[in-house]
Amino acid sequence: MGAPKILSICWLMVCPTPCFLNFPPEYFGGFDEADLHELLGLMDKNYIGWVEYLAPLVIGVNNSEALTSELSSSFCSTDPVIAKSFARATFFSDYREILNQVRHPTLIFQSDNDVLAAKSVGDYMHNKIQNSAIEIIQAKGRYLHMTHPEKIAPLLIKYVNEEELG
């Protein structure tokens, strides 16, 4: 038995976005500010309706009903006040300016059909993060680790192995 191998740190991002807001013409996060306020307003008016609207969209409409149900249950088990605070912080944050500070090898998985973050957002992050790789997954939705683990796992293992050897 030799000395234990120390693994280096690498980051994995699944359908990430540094900012959901559009700042045309240089950045399109996917939403205008009014759209996000409307989405948050729906949370106030009808939280269950918001969950029923959002869960199938973000899991991907062609994915299993069981996964949609699991995600809906997860959303519903969260206190709506906390969920709205989290949603507001998530939807209105802007981390574009710090992407160039990421120093660890980073693998970005991007769905080719994500209703919350278009492929261009994944490309943007890949272009801004040094030492990053991007894998475009032919899929609908943003929870690729749940909906397409058979596609994600081998690519992740390959990336980690290459980073260890490199």
Give the class from helix and strand content and strand pairing.
alpha/beta
Indicate the CATH class. Alpha Beta
CATH architecture: 3-Layer(aba) Sandwich
Strand order of the largest sheet: 1-4-5
Using the CA coordinates, give the radius of gyration: 18 Å
Q: Number of helical segments?
A: 7
List the helices and strands in order. Answer: EEEHHHHEHEHH
Which consecutive residue ranges, at least 5 long each, have pLDDT under 50? none
CATH superfamily: Alpha/Beta hydrolase fold, catalytic domain
Give the tally of structural domains.
1
Percent of sequence in beta strands: 15-25%
Give the overall silhouette: globular
User: Termini distance?
Assistant: 23 Å
What name does the CATH topology carry?
Answer: Rossmann fold
Give the mean pLDDT.
Answer: 91
Give me the secondary-structure topology:
Layout: E1 11-14, E2 22-23, E3 27-28, H1 33-45, H2 47-59, H3 65-76, H4 80-92, E4 106-113, H5 119-128, E5 132-140, H6 144-147, H7 149-165
Throw out a few tags for this protein:
5 strands; two-stranded antiparallel sheet; about 170 residues; globular; about 15% strand; Rossmann fold; alpha/beta; 7 helices; three-stranded parallel sheet
What does this protein structure show overall?
The strands form two sheets. The chain has a three-stranded parallel sheet with strand order 1-4-5, with helices on both faces. It has a two-stranded antiparallel ribbon with strand order 2-3. With 166 residues, the protein is of the alpha/beta class. The model has no long low-confidence stretch (mean pLDDT 91). The protein starts with 10 loop residues before the first strand and ends with a helix. The longest helix is centred in the last third of the chain and has 17 residues, at 149-165. Helix 1 (33-45) packs across helix 2 (47-59). It has helices spanning 33-45, 47-59, 65-76, 80-92, 119-128, 144-147, 149-165, and strands at residues 11-14, 22-23, 27-28, 106-113, 132-140. It has one domain (11-165): Alpha/Beta hydrolase fold, catalytic domain (Rossmann fold, 3-Layer(aba) Sandwich).
